[in-house]
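Cont'd.
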Amino acid sequence: MTRVSLEALAEAVPDGALLALPPDNSLPSVALAKALVRRDAKGLRLLGVPVSGFATDLLIGAGCVAEVQTSAVSLGEAGFAPRFSAAVKAGAITVRDATCPAIHTMLQAAEKGVPFMPLRGVIGSDIIAHRPDWRVVQNPLSDRPDPILILPALHPDTAAVHAVMADEAGNVWVGRRRECATLAHASRKLLVTVERVVPGNMLEDERLAPGTISATYVEAFAVAERGAHPVALLDEYGFDAAYVAAYARAARTEEGFRAWVEEHVFGHTAQVAAE
Amino acid sequence: MSPPDGGVQPEERLATALARLILDPSAPPVRHIAVGAASPIPAAACWLVAKSGHSVRLSLLHKRSGNPFTEGSRELFDLTGQGRIDLFFLGGGQIDGRANINLIGTGEWPGQGVRFPGSFGSAFMYLMTPRTILFREEHSPRVLVQKVDIVSAAGVTPPEVFRRGTAQALVTGRCVFRFNPDRARFTLESVHPGESVESIRSQTGFDFDVPEAVPATPDPTPDELALLRGPVCEEMLETYPEFCARVFGQKAAA
């Protein structure tokens, strides 16, 4: 656990890494995604946990992504993710479709250190035929026919989240978004952006401890105020629907996307966010 | 504040039709309903049931303040695996006559024609929830197809596959269909105002059964309308401000 600059945090994600990102309702670090665009990251393999949103569309549009494994890519009320759709159509990225609980289950297997874990449901879906790493087997504990899906453990190289705060011990606080802890446990390293750093150790506070991810799992963190924006951050700030809608309009075309990135990732707005 | 023209909005009729399906006494009982992403009309239906005095727990995945989950969507799927969620709503970019849904895309895998967002949790929820109500406002031959290009989640599965339930009904902007899983076929149950058996046929890509008499989908009662425009809207303002402004003419407090 070390405190670094936002740009240094982006340097800690190597080209080609399997990078896990939470969806737009579960603390994605949009600040880190923008920093990855600025550092011109290449060949990233993104994992949506369990779906993907704004940050994923931005990284795809900027040419940082080779592959997306996810259960859906969407901008919510702003509609389909425009750069994702364009990249699928152009064959510019590989999409590995999954279904939400399968991604959670693969991470839970990694968290437990077991090679696979079963999941009910899913049988009958065409997703299985396109996942050679998934298998339907007979339930070994049943005497009657009972086909069940087994899923391999999935260990992301890096996971990135935006938390409310870090403390002096390097613990980070995600509030009720405790699914981020599973992501931290399953990933080889967790990179975190935070709104602020607070004194003391949150694990010594009974009321903060349940929403705290121990520094054990945190590779590095950086302060990035409003680092989830335009996505909501717990009770700190809300979802900026107008900003996402404006992005969705601009990103309908490659040119519109480029202009948007110039202004919001490289321009004055992005500089302020990075300080 | 009511909508500008004061008449029944289509969204209000759909929410009421969904609420009646939720309360259907012939279906398995509902104690706990979960509502997923971007689903204002199903959410309104659930709130209408709750505000009508029925004891039902609602877990809205996208509620910001007081979100019911402390482990995000993972907890939703675990709850469902445990059998604690009784009803869920699913939609589809395509829905076919065997109640298969396609949220992935048209054409060759993985949606080389039109790419949809993706399956979300449908492939799990459809099998693990005792009841699913399929809901899609657009009712056209491009959505309601004979056979989906890609199956995100299957309407029926072989008997040896563990499954708690399947589609109860399909509600669209034009009508209500019931689903019979034994025959893997839909039956037309009611048509919304302005529609007929013929108009439904012409806009539906799959075959379905038609009883001798097909009633009109009932309008909301005055009590239901008052609930929708009052307490239901209040509950929804934070999560669905644009929907509340458009349908109920209600703006969130600044």
